[in-house]
Amino acid sequence: MEISTTAIVIAAVSIILLWLILYFIPVGLWFSALVSGVRISLLQLVLMRWRKVPPATIVSAMIEGTKAGLHLNPNELEAHYLAGGHVANVVHALVSAQKANITLDFKMATAIDLAGRDVFEAVQMSVNPKVINTPPVTAVAKDGIQLIAKARVTVRANIKQLVGGAGEETVLARVGEGIVSSIGSSDSHKSVMENPDFISRVVLEKGLDAGTAFEILSIDIADIDVGRNIGAVLQMDQANADKNIAQARAEEKRAMAVALEQEMKAKAQEARAKVIEAEAGIPMAIAEAFRNGNLGIMDYYKLRNIQADTSMRESIGKPGDVSK
Questions:
Q1: Which helix (H) or strand (E) holds 80?
Q2: What confidence tens digit (pLDDT) does each residue in 265-288 have?
Q3: 163 and 115 in contact (C-beta within 8 Å)?
Q4: What is the largest CA-CA distance in the chain?
Q5: Burial of 152 (0-12, 13-18, 19+ CB in 10 A)
Q6: Handedness of CA 177, 181, 184, 189 (dihedral sign)
Q7: CA dist., res. 113 & res. 88, Å (int)
Q8: Contact by Cβ (8 Å): 74, 58
Q9: Helical (H) or strand (E) element with 146
Q10: Which residue of 54, 79, 135, 270 is 20 to 30 Å from 232, comparing CA positions?
Q11: What pairs with residue 138 in β-bridges?
C-alpha cells in the first residue's frame, strides 16, 4: 500500500514537471515552425515565455507570412506585440496586400495598427471599396425651395493616409457641405431635380478627400425630396414683423395723441378755472368802485344793459334757437 502511494505521488510530480517543461520549452511549437520552414530557435521561444509574449501568436504569424512569401523578423513581431499591437491582424494585412499588389511594408502596417485603425480592414477596403450612406442633407435653392438630398459615397482606403488622416465623419461632413453649396448655388430647385448628377460633379471637383484616410471614387445622389418653401416662409415672417412694427408705431402715436389731448383738456380746465375765478371777482370790483366813487349808478345800469344785450345776442346765435 505504501509503495503504490509513493508511486502515485512520483507520477503526479513527474506529470507536473513535464507540463512545466513543455510549457516553458514549447517543443511542439518549435517543431511545427521547423517543418513549416520557419527558422526560430527553441531558446528564443523560451525567452518569449519569460517576456510574457505568447510564442504561439508569433510562430503562427511567422508560419503564415513564410507560406505567403514574406520575410518576417520574430524580434519585430515580438516588439509589436509588446507595444500593444495586433500581430495577427498585421500579418493578415501584409498577406492580403501582397496578393492584391498593394504596396504595404511591415513598418507602415504596424504604424497603422498602433494608430488604432484596423489595418486588415483597410487593405480589404482598398480592394473592395466601401459605400457610405450620408444622412439627409437639407439645402435651399435660390428660388427659396428647400431640398432634402441623400447621397451614397463610394470610398477606397488610402493606405498612405491612414496614419494621421481624417475618418469617415470628416468625409460625410465635407460631402454634406458640398451638397449644400451646390444646391444653394442653383437658380431653381427644378434644375437640381432634373439633373441630380450636377451635384455629384460639383462635389467631386472640390477634392473633398484631401487629408483624409479615404479616396472618394464616386458620389451618387440616391434621393431628393422637396421640402418647404423657405422663401415664402421668410416673406411671411418679414411681413408679420413689418406689421408688428407698424402696429407698435401706431400705438405709440395713439398714446402720444391721447397724452396730448389729456394735456390740452387739463390746460382748458385750468383756463376755465381762471375765468371763473376772474368772473367771481367782478361783483367785488364793482362794489369797490362804488365805495371809491369810481362808478355811479348810471354807469352800473349801462353795464347791466350791456350784459343783458350780450346774453340776448348769445341766445339768438345758438343753432337750436335759429331753427325754432
A1: helix 74-82
A2: 888 888 888 878 777 777 777 777
A3: yes
A4: 174
A5: middle
A6: negative
A7: 11
A8: yes
A9: strand 145-157
A10: 135
A11: 148
Query: Taking Cα atoms as reference points, which of 80, 108, 84, 106 lies closest to residue 95?
Result: 106
What is the spatial distance between Cα 33 and Cα 10, in angstroms, rounded to a whole number?
33
* Pairwise CA distance, residues 138 & 150, whole Å: 9
C-alpha cell at 61: 504569424
When mean pLDDT is compared over 183-187, 314-318, 319-323, the highest value belongs to 183-187
Alpha-carbon gap, residue 111 to 213, rounded angstroms: 14
SS3 of 220, please? strand
Per residue in 133-161, pLDDT (tens digit) is 888 888 888 888 888 888 888 888 888 77
**Dist. CA 204–CA 209, nearest whole Å:** 9
Cell 369810481 belongs to residue: 294
SS3 of residue 131 by DSSP: strand
SS3 147: strand
- Residue identified by cell 460633379 is 201
Q: Which residue, chain included where needed, has cell 425651395?
A: 145
Query: At 35, phi and psi to the nearest 5?
Result: -70, -15
- Neighbouring CB atoms inside 10 A of 127's CB total 14
Rounding to the nearest 10 degrees, give the CA dihedral for residues 116, 213, 122, 79: -40
125 in Cβ contact with 157 (< 8 Å): yes
- How, if at all, do strands 137-140 and 145-157 pair? antiparallel
Cβ contacts of 138 within 8 Å, gap of 6 or more = 146, 147, 148, 180, 227
